């Protein structure tokens, strides 16, 4: 078992006792990514579209740092503060997974870190 912690400065640093991702046995498990801009350490977008774009940028950066890419993602989980944003997030998310999209779950939650609107985590293959 070869367990590797993945960190990149192209995505926000962890805001708690967790890693951006863990790579093990040909699989990459990301932590949930929120819409923090890595360069500023702040959530800059106030609308769901801007936050969803930033989350996808952060998620893609972590996946790349783990030696994979979006085409190898097998499962995502989307956490929304308001399920009414599903359509807008789905459009932004879908633009990144144009062919053979991964399995996915999407749930509304009571609250997200830093009171953001969306968080997404992924599992990807690395081989």
Which terms would index this structure?
60s Ribosomal Protein L30, Chain: A; about 130 residues; 2 helices; globular; alpha+beta
Structure, described:
- The protein has 127 residues and is α+β, with helices and mostly antiparallel strands.
- It has a single domain, classed as 60s Ribosomal Protein L30, Chain: A (2-Layer Sandwich), CATH 3.30.1330.40.
- 23% of the residues lie in helices and 30% in strands.
- The chain has two helices and eight strands; from the N terminus they run βββββαβαββ.
- Strands 1-2-3-8-6-7 form a six-stranded mixed sheet, covered by helices on one side.
- β6 (73-80), α2 and β7 (103-108) form a beta-alpha-beta unit.
- It is globular and about 40 Å long.
The rounded distance between the terminal residues' Cα atoms is: 15 Å
Spatial extent as radius of gyration: 14 Å
CATH class: Alpha Beta
> What's the architecture in CATH terms?
2-Layer Sandwich
Extract low-pLDDT stretches: none
Strand arrangement, major sheet = 1-2-3-8-6-7
State the major sheet. 6 strands, mixed
Tell me roughly what share of residues is in helical segments: 10-25%
What's the total count of β strands?
8
What average pLDDT do the residues reach? 97
The CATH homologous superfamily is called RutC-like
Describe the oligomeric state of these chains in a short phrase.
Answer: single chain
**Topology order in helix (H) and strand (E) letters:** EEEEEHEHEE
By secondary-structure content and strand pairing, the structural class works out as alpha+beta
What's the domain count?
1
Proportion of strand residues:
25-35%
3D shape: globular
As for the CATH topology, it is 60s Ribosomal Protein L30, Chain: A
- Given the structure, what is the number of helices? 2
């Amino acid at each position: 078992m070869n367990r590797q912690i993945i960190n990149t400065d192209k995505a926000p640093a962890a805001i708690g006792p967790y890693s951006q991702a863990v790579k093990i046995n040909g699989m990459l498990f990301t932590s949930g990514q929120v819409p923090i801009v890595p360069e500023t350490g702040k959530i800059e977008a106030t609308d769901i579209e801007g936050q969803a774009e930033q989350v996808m940028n952060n998620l893609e950066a972590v996946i790349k740092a783990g030696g994979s890419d979006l085409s190898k993602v097998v499962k995502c989980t989307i956490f929304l503060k308001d399920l009414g944003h599903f359509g807008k997030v789905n459009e932004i998310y879908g633009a990144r997974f144009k062919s053979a999209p991964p399995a996915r779950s999407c749930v509304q939650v009571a609250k997200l870190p830093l009171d953001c609107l969306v968080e997404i985590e992924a599992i990807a293959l690395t081989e």
